[in-house]
Design a protein that fits this description.
Layout (H helix, E strand, L loop, with lengths): L1 E7 L2 H10 L2 H12 L3 E7 L2 E9 L6 H12 L2 E6 L3 H9 L4
Antiparallel strand pairs: 1-3, 1-4, 2-3
Amino acid sequence: MRALLEITMDTETANRLISDGVVAEKFDRIMGDLKPEAAYFFVRDGRRSQIIVVDVADEASLPSVCEPFWLEFNADVDIHLCMNADDMRAGLGRLGH
């Protein structure tokens, strides 16, 4: 199922990783594992943030999706199940109206 992750990195942690020169390596590894359908980066409330859309196989996949951001970036992570337009049409078609 498709999920949208809203990720906001802890500034102190991100600053240290950038200064140490390891932020890109950590980020590339996580993105390589998750293989996002889309990824967007921006500033939210003065903090480094991103939105990524990933495929989540089932509920048991949540730790492998969220934990890397918590462990590596001390990030705040929100996850939302979401649909694209085709999914929405299919879902509306199931209403039977």
